[in-house]
């Protein structure tokens, strides 16, 4: 190799002998032609903009889901940490025509309002659930839906129809059905937890889709919003699993819906741009970077409708991670059986928990439990408490209750085994069971009959039994929050059960839930 200097132009040229040319490669030139948006994005946007909701079952179920979710949000306000997390960043801030946060006097912009409402409704892990290859809580999307609907309705009234839009309760329920469907259908066959991602990625995607239409965006702009939601940073599941389980799992959904609403407003206000192959781009796309190169699959159900809302699971009896709902119900039955035999938890030698693979992966936990979030994701803890007291409430995850050494002593006597049939039935689209069975051996060698509960009371197969209990749960949460205001509770219940409830302006309804 030698250098040749051109003094006139002050350039240096590198000259290589011919024998060295063989070691050089010609760089491949990448084309910069924009592809058509990924099919997943187009399918979701088409569903949101073009598919009407015609299922009366879905609408009736959405109404129950809406009430239950609001009740859970009120119940979360009992807890200081939840109250502190949702506070305005600048104390005393009141946004003109802003979103009213249920159970408080806060009036926020719709992004911060989404975080506050989304955090409250998820805090206790007590609202509805969807179990498939990926699990999650589709009602989390209500945080974004309600915040936007409430703000736009107030803006509409303040400007006498020149800005915003008047949303009715039915509009909110329709949006809930579609958000449930998007999150739930993607979750059927696609496990984000197996690649270490948290299910709130689907909350962000579903909320982004439905909120974009609520804001008046076009179908093409919804694709734009969706592409931004998928390219956005996705949460790791670290905070849901030992040894790092913590309270972030209680506000992760609030974070997801607030991000979704923020992205929708960015598209509305600034046209931030579509990333058409956000999923499929080689090297840089979601599939290659975060999903081990595998595309999302939709073999069970290739079209979006209202299937998820029609089959949603309600948490009615216990504020417990859903894979343990039937285990807790079995534990309450065992408590009664022991009592009938003049026995108690102190007479127990061992407990075999026959369960599904998902439960073993998520909530089978030994060793110390450090906080509320640790305890409500430990199947042994959720069984031990009702075996001791006969029930399980949100307060039972507190440090005060957990200090009872009898709980950990009883936990140490339990062990989980997977029943492959239960795992199969868990994924069966015609069953979607969440079975658990307890086999208890006593210190004297007596073995009680195994107590098996296949479907929780909130399951579709037990819907007739569950609806009155769900409404009782809603009323209980109202009474516990609006203490000393029985008239207010009566007004909310009466309005919620009226035949024309669906035609009520959503901001007028939410005014009933706010503190002066």
What name goes with the CATH superfamily of the largest domain? 2-methylcitrate dehydratase PrpD
Sequence of strands across the biggest β-sheet? 6-5-7-8
**N to C succession of SSEs:** EEHHHEEHHHHHHHHHEHHHHHEHEEHHH
**Overall geometric form:** globular
β-strand number: 8
Estimate percent helicity.
40-55%
Quick rundown:
The chain has 516 residues and is of the alpha+beta class. The chain is built from 21 helices and eight strands. The chain folds into two domains: 272 residues, 2-methylcitrate dehydratase PrpD, CATH 1.10.4100; 136 residues, 2-methylcitrate dehydratase PrpD (60s Ribosomal Protein L30, Chain: A, 2-Layer Sandwich).
């Amino acid at each position: 190799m030698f250098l040749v200097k051109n003094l006139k132009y002050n350039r240096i040229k590198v000259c290589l002998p011919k024998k060295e040319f063989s070691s050089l490669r010609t760089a491949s030139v990448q084309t910069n032609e924009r592809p058509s948006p990924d099919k997943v994005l187009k399918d979701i946007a088409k569903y949101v903009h073009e598919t009407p909701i015609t299922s009366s079952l879905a609408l009736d179920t959405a109404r129950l889901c809406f009430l239950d979710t609001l009740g859970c949000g009120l119940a979360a306000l009992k807890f200081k940490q939840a109250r502190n997390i949702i506070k305005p960043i600048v104390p005393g801030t009141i946004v003109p025509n802003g979103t009213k946060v249920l159970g408080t006097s806060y009036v926020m912009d719709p992004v911060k309002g989404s975080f506050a409402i989304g955090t409250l409704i998820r805090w206790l892990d007590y609202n509805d659930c969807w179990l498939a290859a990926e699990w999650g809580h589709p009602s989390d999307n209500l945080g974004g839906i309600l915040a936007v609907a409430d703000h736009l309705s107030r803006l509409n009234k303040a400007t006498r129809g020149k800005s915003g839009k008047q949303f009715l309760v039915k509009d909110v329920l329709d949006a809930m059905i579609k958000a449930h469907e998007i999150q739930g259908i993607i979750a059927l066959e696609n496990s984000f937890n197996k690649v270490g991602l948290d299910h709130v990625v689907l909350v962000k995607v579903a909320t982004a889709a439905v909120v974009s239409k609520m804001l008046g965006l076009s179908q093409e702009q919804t694709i734009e919003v969706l592409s931004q939601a998928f390219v956005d940073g996705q949460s790791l599941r670290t905070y849901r699993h030992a040894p790092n389980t913590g309270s972030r799992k209680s506000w992760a959904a609030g974070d997801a819906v607030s991000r979704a609403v923020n992205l929708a407003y960015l598209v509305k206000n600034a046209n931030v741009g579509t990333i058409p192959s956000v999923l499929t781009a080689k090297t840089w796309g979601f599939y290659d970077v975060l999903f081990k190169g595998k595309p999302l699959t939709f073999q069970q159900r290739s079209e979006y409708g209202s299937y998820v809302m029609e089959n949603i699971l309600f948490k009615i009896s216990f504020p417990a991670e859903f894979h343990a709902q039937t285990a807790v119900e079995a534990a309450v039955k065992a408590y009664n059986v022991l009592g009938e035999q003049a026995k108690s938890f102190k007479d127990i030698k061992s407990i075999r928990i026959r369960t599904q693979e998902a439960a073993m992966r998520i909530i089978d936990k030994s060793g110390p439990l450090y906080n509320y979030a640790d305890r409500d994701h430990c199947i042994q803890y959720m069984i031990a408490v009702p075996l001791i007291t006969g029930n399980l409430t949100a307060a039972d995850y507190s440090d005060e209750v957990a200090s009872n050494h009898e709980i950990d002593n009883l936990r140490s006597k339990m062990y989980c085994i997977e029943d492959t049939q239960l795992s199969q039935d868990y994924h069966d689209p015609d069953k979607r069971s969440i079975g658990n069975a307890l086999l208890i051996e006593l210190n004297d060698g007596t073995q009680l009959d195994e107590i098996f509960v296949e479907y929780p009371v909130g399951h579709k197969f037990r819907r007739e039994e569950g609806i009155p209990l769900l409404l009782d749960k809603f009323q209980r949460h109202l009474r516990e929050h609006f203490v000393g205001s029985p008239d207010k509770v009566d007004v909310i219940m009466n309005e919620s059960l009226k035949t024309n409830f669906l035609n009520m302006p959503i901001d007028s309804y939410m005014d009933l839930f706010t503190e002066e």
